[in-house]
Design brief:
By secondary structure, this protein is of the alpha/beta class. It is built from 15 helices and twelve strands.
């Protein structure tokens, strides 16, 4: 039985004097009573912003709207709200209006890599499918801030049908990431329909759901939802915890339900200045995650989206955090630290260097303690020349359905079967001279 905190009782009573506390766990009640203005925010938390600050806040809200579930609000500790990690993720800051030159509306060029509305097809074998542009909570650090609260960009059913058609006609797509917005804002029936459609596409091997519901509205993870999801296995789910304080009795229960339904759980954390840019906080977070059967998946460098400058840290902070994790704690609890390349290059992993030096037959490595060690490579190794003719190869791939992809990028340079020796940017002066421009 979940006990309610003092905060939760006090907020529930203020929202609605007739409210019986049992409504608190009804996700629709939570959505209906989402906090979207400063007055209510002040009233529920018993805080008061200074008048000059309020003016700035109103300006921020006009550009980037506010919406917080009563549940997520109840996690704020009002005494020191200014440094509270929940408050900072939920409540606007006038800094959001500061626009730096390098910042972009769509830093990841998701719209450019979009063959049909709602689909971002960036990688060879997987697509991002935006099936909802609304969320139960508007994260202040949202990379898709450009779309938050924009009603026009809520996809219509015919748009979803177009997306499904695209996936249908692209047999290389074996992994579909349902994203948004938050896909779990859709009703169980509607989601059931989308998942059923995806089930019928033979080349789709796995569906992933990206949702922040276990963090900001754990009551959305109902038995009904979970029973529906498990009809569509294999379903994987990634959620978005940023701070150990977000792991509560209610969120643990949501995670337990999902894990018990056989849904492998992952977590994506964004490195946020003033919120979690500390290796002890990240370590505590990942330990709590694995304790609740969630595998830390990515730690993201904060994107260069408009209005996020105050959340960004140097990359060195992320490397320092990784240095404090690798070797120090269980390997399976360590996320991959990635920078999502501006301009649409995708996620690029970065980590401390472990390779110290290399000769023709030895590699020199260092470990997390500073031990320097050497690994001797074999004296002889019979490399197998790869001409991509797997049927005649002595290595037995022997999978009828093994798909062949053309080599791209660095793997093309590495390959034996392709003559390409260098990748050269097209627009250098040298190349332009060659082309007689
Ligand atoms: C993150 C992302 C994916 C999935 O990447 P994984 O590394 O497979 O998790 C796919 N498409 C786009 C556009 C993405 O941003």
């Amino acid at each position: 039985m979940v006990q309610y905190t003092e905060n939760q009782k006090s907020i529930a009573e203020k929202i609605d004097t007739d409210t019986v506390i049992s409504n608190w766990k009804n996700w629709k009640w939570q959505l209906k009573h989402s906090i979207q203005d400063i007055d209510t925010f002040e009233h529920l938390l018993d805080i008061k912003f200074p008048p000059e600050e309020r003016k700035e806040l109103e300006k921020t809200l006009a550009k980037f709207p506010l919406s917080v579930t009563p549940y997520y609000l109840s996690l704020i500790e009002a005494e020191d709200y200014k440094n509270d990690p929940i408050f900072l993720q939920a409540f606007p800051s006038p800094s959001e209006l500061i626009l730096n030159k390098c910042e972009m509306n769509d830093p990841l060029s998701e719209d450019e890599d979009s063959p049909v509305p709602g689909i971002t097809h960036r990688y060879p074998d997987r697509v991002l499918f935006h099936i909802s542009n609304t969320c139960s909570m508007y994260c202040r650090h949202c990379t898709r801030k450009r779309k938050v609260g924009d009603r026009d960009s809520i996809p219509q059913k015919d748009e979803i049908v177009e997306g499904l058609k695209y996936i249908h006609s692209h047999p290389e797509v074996r992994d579909v990431l349902l994203s948004g917005g938050d896909p779990l804002m859709l009703s169980d029936d509607y989601l059931d329909w989308i998942l059923t459609e995806l089930d019928q596409i033979p080349h789709v091997e796995v569906v992933r759901i990206g949702t922040r519901m276990p963090v900001v509205l754990p009551y959305r993870i109902t038995d009904n939802l979970v029973n529906m999801l498990k009809k569509h296995h294999p379903i994987w789910l990634n959620t978005h915890f940023n701070h150990p304080r977000e792991i509560t009795t209610s969120s643990k229960q949501a995670l337990r339900r999902l894990a018990d339904a056989g849904i492998p759980l992952g977590n994506q954390t964004v490195l946020l200045a003033g919120i979690n840019d500390c290796h002890r906080i990240i370590k505590s977070l990942i330990h709590k995650l694995v304790h609740n059967r969630v595998r830390p998946y990515y730690l993201y460098q904060c994107d260069m989206s408009e209005g996020l400058a105050h959340f960004r840290t140097p990359v060195g902070k992320g490397i320092e955090i990784m240095e404090n994790l690798i070797g120090h704690t269980s390997g399976f609890s360590i996320p991959t630290y990635v920078i999502d390349a501006p301009g649409g290059g995708g996620k690029i992993p970065v980590m401390p260097n472990y390779m110290v030096s290399w000769s023709t037959n030895k590699v020199i490595l260092r470990n997390y303690e500073g031990v320097i060690t050497s690994y001797k490579e074999p004296d002889s190794y019979e490399a197998i020349f790869c001409d991509r003719n797997c049927d005649d190869c002595k290595l037995q791939l022997k999978l009828d359905d093994a798909q062949e992809y053309k080599a791209i990028g660095i793997s093309k340079l590495l390959s034996d079967h392709d003559e390409l020796v260098s990748l050269v940017p097209e627009d250098t002066d040298r190349m332009e001279r060659r082309n007689g421009e």
